[in-house]
Predict the structure of 2Fe-2S iron-sulfur cluster binding domain-containing protein.
Amino acid sequence: MFHQLTIQNVAKETPDSVAITFDVPTDLNGAFDWKPGQYLTLRTEINGEDLRRSYSIASLPGKALTVGVKQVEDGKFSTFAQGLKAGDTLQVMPPEGRFTPRGEARLVLIAAGSGITPMVSIAADELAKGHEVTLVYGNRATGSIMFREALDALKDRYTDRFTLIHILSREPQDVDLLNGRISGEKVAALGKAGAIDLTGADGVYLCGPGDMIDDVTATLEGAGVARDKIHFERFYEDGDAPRAPKSAAAAAAAEKGVTVEVILDGTRRIFEFGAQDETIVDAAARQGLELPYSCKGGMCCTCRCKVEEGSAEMAINYSLEPWELEAGFTLGCQARPTSEKLVLDFDAA
């Protein structure tokens, strides 16, 4: 799953963020072919602890594979990443993710903080295709704007098709509407002022803190934007996300013991899920089997799999869409069996 890649360059984007560019060997070009909006899972060991984190690809079309990493308070991996340099190596999983445009001609992108990373690639690629893009980007101040030079270059190049709106919370701007934080109310006000066209957009893409995404999504739906036109990506939550307690069925199944069979890379493997296990990924790890995962927070979909037999519930889900739930997909890092046997296909599309 992971490949060791050498870091080609590390550029300081802001005082607390870096852009890390990888050198992908020719024989791995196919594996690391990516779409704008996808992410990479990076892995390293820090003080004996195996750490994995997902970071969105921020590359411009035709440019080297790059991710943006912003340091977060008490963030082990993000703090470690600030000290990386050219020539260092990291374990990297091939690109994943479905936060990708669907051929829309008019897009509205809304990002806060490091949520800009997938939007840089999306905006650049869509503009190159001749599409119209409006980007609303929230930050504390000008100095905390990641990929500012790249965004300014896009604005200068596509003056008639790219609208860039900066919202700053700690640096006053001349237009009062552009001060504060991105919220549902702020987005509605921008729409009312004619700064963005919400109902005329073919797709609206959100990336940032969970509370921002929930608030803006509710506003968009209230304004008449169809739910299937709204797409979002989360990589973190403020504090511990609330997790549903085990249901009576899940508790009973775990106490009795569940036989779990997984299909991964065309191979079937079997292990047991017991009362000591919280999730499928945890149970597999306890018995020496490494399943795909990254965030362990129900947000990134690296552990997405399909229930082929039996049943399972999830403690939390921020990434699977309604159609996926109806089709039987679940998240391995959140799944708890509710049947005596559970078969999961990690190869299912």
